[in-house]
Amino acid sequence: MNIVKELKPTYFDDFKCIGSECEDTCCAGWNIGIDKKSFKKYRKETNPNLKSLLQKNVSRNRQATSDYHYGQFKMDDQDKCSMLNEENLCTIQLTSGEEALCHTCTIYPRSAKSINDSIEKSLDTSCPEAARLILLNPNGIDFVEVEPELPKYNFAQHRQSDEQNQYFWANRMFMISALQHRVHPLEVRLIVIGLYVKKLEELEPAERFVQAQTLSSQYLAYLDDANITDLTTQIKPNYDFQKALTLFFLKDFSARSSRFNQLASCTFDEVNFGDSTESFAQSLLNYKTQYDQSELLQIALENYLVNLTFAEYNESKEDIISFYTLLITNFSLIRLLFIGNGHKFSYTNEEIVATIQIFSKSCLHNTTYINNVKKIISTKQYSQTSQTINLINI
Asked: 81 - beta bridge partners?
């Protein structure tokens, strides 16, 4: 592996874990996988302060599909890792140091992957402190290329052909540039990205590689046209989709996080979902005013989407059509959380960070959610991208 450059957001090196001061410990609310090497080390632990705890609270994960999840920690009756002490600090780290932590606990909320000759690093918005760094930058997320420093932990490696690599870079640079084009509302930017993806969807795969660079420049230029807003307003809102999304993911979806379930249950709590779609649409529009007027929120949502695109989009893992569906579904659900609580929110930094962080932790790391996202867009009548675009306007 010949790594010649490192690419990361400028916020990356500013992150520091705040430990027991964190409002939502990373050691609760989800399964914590233990890599095979650490699992075997824990099984041989001789320190009397740790040995019995590890024997009782570490188990083999027989359903694991990789060595990174070879084992797992037992969760207590509050869904917290059983290795936490009363101050929510890790007993393993306190007793044996950071080097004794398993792979998952060492890297989180950091993420690293290599794509051909570069390594890329980012942070995850499911961590409150990382979310603050990502979401609250008023100038938007910027990136820096530096001399490579390989992380001390393992990271995903992706190899792409020259054609595929050029296609990937053209797509991702276009999406990030369009998302940060603040001349237009965020919804307009997302629709233009959707029109670009729809154009690619109509081409044969081999032709996409050839035309991506030219098309990305063409669609980015559309955002310089003040009249582009007129085009996007022709895309009519689909309130049936919005209502179904609200019911399925915010009212019927049960997460492990009590914080998420409480937030979701309060969303549109004054709405009778047994009434007509027109009644729901009117409530949506009534609540939307504060959402539209909050500049802090619009910047935070832009930063969230840019970070997600940088960290998660990768053609060797998921093509741009599937990624765009995930991007818009996430955006739509977060927007519904904010609009549906607009009569209670003041849209402070604290409310913005908490809402996006709770969503990220409860949904994006939940395989049930991910699988349902893939099913929610039917392809029977229209293309996947066409129906995804219909989620944007409200």
From this structure: 75
How many angstroms separate the CA atoms of 11 and 19, rounded? Answer: 19
Pairing state between β 58-60 and 71-73: antiparallel
How distant is the alpha carbon of residue 6 from its chain centre?
Answer: 22
Query: In the predicted model, what is the mean pLDDT of residues 250-279?
Result: 86
56 Cβ neighbours under 8 A, 6+ residues apart: 74, 82
- Please report the pLDDT score of residue 161 as a whole number: 72
pTM: 0.92
Give residue for tokens 């399964």.
31
**Interval 117-159: pLDDT, tens:** 889 999 999 999 999 999 999 999 999 999 887 766 666 777 7
Extract the tokens encoding 200: 């690619």
Question: Which sign does the torsion angle of CA 181, 183, 186, 189 carry?
Answer: negative
Question: Closest Cα partner for 9 from 156, 126, 130, 161?
Answer: 130
**Hey, where are the domains in the chain?**
27-107, 161-394
